[in-house]
Amino acid sequence: xxxxxxxxxxxxxxxxxxxxxxxxxxxxxxxxxxxxxxxxxxxxxxxxxxxxxxxxxxxxxxxxxxxxxxxxxxxxxxxxxxxxxxxxxxxxxxxxxxxxxxxxxxxxxxxxxxxxxxxxxxxxxxxxxxxxxxxxxxxxxxxxxxxxxxxxxxxxxxxxxxxxxxxxxxxxxxxxxxxxxxxxxxxxxxxxxxxxxxxxxxxxxxxxxxxxxxxxxxxxxxxxxxxxxxxxxxxxxxxxxxxxxxxxxxxxxxxxxxxxxxxxxxxxxxxxxxxxxxxxxxxxxxxxxxxxxxxxxxxxxxxxxxxxxxxxxxxxxxxxxxxxxxxxxxxxxxxxxxxxxxxxxxxxxxxxxxxx
Length: 356
Ligand SMILES: Cc1ncc(C[n+]2csc(CCOP(=O)(O)OP(=O)(O)O)c2C)c(N)n1
Known about the structure:
Elements: E1 4-5, H1 24-49, H2 63-72, E2 78-80, H3 86-91, H4 96-104, H5 137-150, E3 157-162, H6 169-181, E4 185-191, E5 194-195, E6 198-199, H7 212-216, E7 219-224, H8 228-243, E8 249-254, H9 273-280, H10 284-294, H11 300-322, H12 342-355
Parallel strand pairs: 1-7, 2-3, 3-4, 4-8, 7-8
Antiparallel strand pairs: 5-6
Helix pairs in contact: 1-2, 1-10, 1-11, 2-8, 4-11, 5-6
Thiamine diphosphate is lined by residues 82, 84, 132-134, 161-165, 192, 194-196, 257, 261.
């Protein structure tokens, strides 16, 4: 359980034993979504620094995890994402504007500014709202999977979380229940080496995070989280097993958060520049580009074009979302009661009258 599955070898070729054998159009789609995610990330940080949005959780360095896992999901599967998994949403078809709207909290926000910023969701793809308390999405994912199993639906649920999430009571409760009731759940742990400033060496004395699955009676697998094909393969296999009634899997994807924990964090206080530079060398997007170039599917020009296209898509989405007005304040009185009680109706009318 401590060895790690990789597909893309250092020379850029794929290990034929592990290669998921995706068609060319899927390989290019994976690349475009990873490039889009990176462009989105860079822009969102710039927007926060410019005071145009309040808060953002970056994912640079972890694109292979969220995009690779997102590609393995199918219609009907339930997604309980980590706040860092915009890529899963984008890969499943959630429009950029839907994510951005929930970061701005204006009229472009389908949840009308009622969630905390950056706690996005998309009901149309069964993507449940990001959870704020660490790892609370895990028991939720197990519950959804158990319900699907009881109903005889052939779907799976995935919960993504960080290495810090494995130190919670929720991790234990979810893993234990999933093991006992054999729920169709994939626990996707993106081990990015830190829980804010706390290194993974302070989270566990176990030899890996994947090995913890053994104690709950199911499979644990370690995968190279900077290798999109390896993530796609391992998550795809685990989801297929779950849908086929073969129970849960814990996946530990080894990766690294290149940027800060969030826009409120300064990582230079707890990590060395050398460490970050060493992981930059393992950039998942560059690594996949090398693979695609080796296959003759991309070259320098198409790599540059994909980056430019991604930047332009993000620019357009920001333009659309920034043009949206604030959420109308009378919406405060909507969506809770089927029929508004008289005292709230009075309050609303008084507010509206005061406004004019
Ligand atoms: C129960 C709880 N405790 C503390 C926090 C504050 N907090 C937010 S994110 C975080 C670290 C989570 O680290 P990890 O699970 O490794 O995920 P990562 O952010 O690295 O992706 C903490 C401690 C919280 N949100 N919830």
